[in-house]
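Structure ticket #2291
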Amino acid sequence: MDYDSFLELQKNYPRTVGNDYMRPDGLKRCFSSGVMTVAYDDRALFLFERREGFTKLRFRIIDASAVLAPHEEILAVELIYREDQRPDAAVNWLLDNGFVLFKTHRRHTALAITGDLSPEGVEPASAQEAYAVLGEHFCAIEVDLPCRDLFEGAFCVRAENGAIIGVIHLGQRPALAVSHKARGQGVGRRLYRAYAATKVRDGQTPVFHAWISSDNAESLAMFAGLGFTADNVFTDCYVRY
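Resolution: structure written out below.
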């Protein structure tokens, strides 16, 4: 199936459960690179994204009663839902098929980023550098790090010796990592403001989203200082070991 055919097909599945790649830019990239395949039936539309070492599933469904078809290759599933619309049928299917809840993030939203958006002290990082640094802080299941051959590079902040102490990946859902020794020094804020400046400069609608775990006090405080407030959208990541 080609990309345009998929865009037409997905209109038949109005209830979005896993929607990161429903945005055309990221979805088109995954289709063109061959890492995304599609299957569908009268209940659900499935997107199988083959990353490095595992397959991640995203899907859209006709209604809340739809369930997933078994697929032995799936090792990670992400459910995105509003607080009062948790997809219990999908959750029950996952639990019955050996999946466990890995982590829940709550979405935080800002209509604008407060503070200076100057990129001073922030510079581009190569794809290899960004992948290495983010890989130390995140499991690929946890955030939307692309496959290595899709990595687009990042912004970074370096120490005096040239070592990277903070990096932000410029993807659909930007992934931000700051070394433990550099935390509390405003590195994360500088990186996110530089990222925000690219969105404003590119003429995109200045609405920003951050997905933060409720136990990540440092990130919660940082994003609150940038103007983010929590909304009622959550994402649950389930994994099968």
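Closing remark: The chain has six helices and twelve strands.
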